[in-house]
Amino acid sequence: MPHFHLPTRPSLRRSLAALALCAASAAHASAPTPAKTPMTDRATVLGQQGLIVIAHRGASGYRPEHTLEAYRLAIQQGADFIEPDLVATRDGELVVRHENEISGTTDVADHPEFADRKTSKTIDGEKLTGWFTEDFTLAELKTLRAKERIAQIRPGNTRFDGQLPIATFKEVIALAKQESRDGRVIGIYPETKHPTWFASEGTHLDGSPIHISLGEKLVATLVAEGFTDPGRVYIQSFEVANLIELKQRILPKAGIDLPLVQLYGDFERDRPYDFVYNAGHKADLDAIYGGLIAAIPGGIDAKTSFAALTETAALTWMKANYVAGLGPSKSSVILRAPLPAKRDADGDGRALLSTRNTGFIHPVLGRALALGLQVHPYTLRAEEPFLTQTANGVDQSALGEALQWYSLGVQGFFIDQPDIGVAARKLFLEQSRIAPVKAP
User: Domain GP-PDE, which positions (predicted)?
Assistant: First the structure.
């Protein structure tokens, strides 16, 4: 896949920027005035004018995700942060995979010595069959090689299949350190994957409990590797309890403070899995969630969805007690509707663009910005199946989408093609400069 290059024609740059800014103006008209996000408590401030580009699993649009080569390319393309998803091995090491089930991202199925480790497990309520990191030692995982997860969409990435090893979290930190030179600083944005599963619910292949706190392992690794600058690390999770525990117990115990980001699934359909598990197991919810229960109408139970965490009272409590930012799905904030028929927007003979933005912006964006929270939506991708039309029916590229997000006020976003994000930020900042109006 060729790399994206910033257009050089000034008229095109002006047109793209104006399009994004105008598309956002209606959403801003009724939103509360955003408070300026405080940045003074950070030793290092990455990005440009408060805007960051987060390489989603590395430059995963160009290399198999979560490999050191994907992270290295993302850094070369100008990303400020690289994002590793963290799962644990049998011997308690943190490795970087999108999921602990690895049949879709490695060649484990081609290793007959591991055939007997294929099994079925129910993780976060979903039954999965395959191979799981918690049933392998780190040394065993190091014999595997990565492969492209969505080969039908990114066939070019399959040329790297079978070549790239599974990376450890320590190796990702080492890479960020190594590439932080010549005045440039690289940050990391780790996500704990299925923390309730690893800590409380999950078992190894032999039935023994896993009992690993991903939060404790994550913080211990950051401390051991000397990577604790709060301007270079965000920690994110789709669960709530582990973030509260990080903020109130794990980080203070380690003597450090790092910004935490609450991820969101679909606001109405999805639920934080720790809500489901803890309520279902009749845990002491007051001890786990404290005042968040009172901030949510109806409290917390196994049916409480992410929508409950978008209301002002909940956001206010979250900011005061554990979060620095939110990571919502982009389609939950800028709502989409299906097109009557799919379109071939990129002219490759396949009609894969299937939605149009409705023009409605979910109020969580204005609420969060007004409270001074960071907002980092996920995931911008350049391929046609992930794109949409604008509300007025214009086919929207990843560059146009990135411009729209910056104009709506977010401070960063996750993107699979970091070079496009960097180009969009450059274009947005260039065309946002106000110059004196001169007579024609």
Answer: 51-425
Q: How far apart are CA 153 and CA 265, in angstroms?
A: 23
One-letter identity of residue 190? P
What is the reported pLDDT for 379?
98
Least Cα distance to 205 among 266, 120, 313 occurs for 120
258's tokens: 């790092």
Residue-number span of the structural domain to which 27 is assigned: 10-432
Adjacent-strand bridge partners of 79: none
Q: pLDDT grade, residue 43 (50/70/90)? A: low
Domain count, the chain: 1
Flag whether 440 is in a domain: no
CA dist 127 and 283 (Å) reads 24
CA 298, 304, 309, 311 torsion: positive or negative?
A: negative
Q: 317 lies in a domain?
A: yes
Confirm whether pTM is higher than 0.85: yes
Residue 117 lies in a domain: yes
What's the token pair of residue 211? 């009992």
Give the tokens for residue 192.
């704990």
Distance CA 293, CA 66 (A): 36
The tokens for 331 are: 């389609």
Quote the Cα angle for 133-139-142, to 5°.
Answer: 75
Q: What are residue 122's DSSP bridge partners? A: 127
Residue 7 has pLDDT above 90, yes or no: no
Give the per-residue pLDDT at 44.
Answer: 84
Burial 343-378 (b: 16+ CB within 10 A, else e): bebeeeeeebbbbbbeeebbbbbbbbbebebbbbbb
Q: How much is the pLDDT for 33?
A: 41
> Are 430 and 13 within 8 A, CB to CB?
yes
Mean pLDDT, residues 247-251:
98
- The tokens of 312 are what? 């002002």
CATH of the domain at 258: 3.20.20.190
